[in-house]
Design a protein that fits this description.
The protein is an alpha+beta fold. It is built from 4 helices and 4 strands. The chain has a 4-stranded antiparallel beta sheet with strand order 1-2-3-4. A hairpin with a 2-residue loop joins strand 3 (116-124) and strand 4. The longest helix is centred in the C-terminal third of the chain and has 28 residues, at 134-161. The protein is globular. The model has no long low-confidence stretch (mean pLDDT 89).
């Protein structure tokens, strides 16, 4: 069996996400007191929050090691998926790299601090979206790219089955 490093170049994107995530979190930790809110625009504040749970503070009663093990398992799965993914599937590869970088960016916080530092507070009037960070944004964008790739595959398969001259797809 020949070992091939397909899609290994996408790991630079993962490393970039982790680096940007850690730099921005350190900036927040050093410059904003916990629970402080600094208005940036009418819809955006910088805040300093600690999240001990998963996305949107779900499972916050779970110990940090639970999320570390989960992130390590997901990361191994992503690396295997990236290894098996054909080189030409850029949406999948970039989506996986973003998710990997985000997962590892947050796991660094959990190992070092026992929580994840969140600092982006999007809001409309009194309604606030859950605070998030660069890692969370990368995970969300990465998942969106995987969904987009699945939709495009579905549309391409449907178009390939459709006889010529039947007009556009619904």
């Amino acid at each position: 069996m020949t070992f091939r490093l397909s899609n290994v170049h996408w790991l630079w994107l993962s490393a970039g996400v982790m680096l940007a995530d850690q730099i921005t979190k350190q900036m927040v930790i050093r410059s904003i007191e916990r629970f402080e809110s600094i208005p940036v625009t009418p819809l955006l504040n910088w805040v300093h929050m600690h999240n001990t749970g998963a996305a949107f503070s779900m499972l916050s009663q779970m110990p940090p090691w639970f999320f570390v093990l989960l992130a390590v398992g997901v990361s191994v799965g992503i690396l295997i998926w990236m290894r098996r993914n054909p080189l030409g599937q850029r949406l999948v590869a970039s989506g996986l790299a973003l998710i990997l970088g985000g997962a590892l960016g947050n796991v660094i916080d959990r190992v070092r601090l026992g929580h994840v530092t969140d600092f982006v507070d999007f809001h409309i009037d009194d309604w606030h979206f859950a605070a998030f960070n660069v890692a969370d944004a990368a995970i969300t964008v990465g998942a969106g790219l995987l969904i987009l790739d699945m939709l495009l595959d579905t549309w391409r398969a449907r178009a390939a089955r459709k006889p010529a001259g039947e007009g556009p797809l619904p």
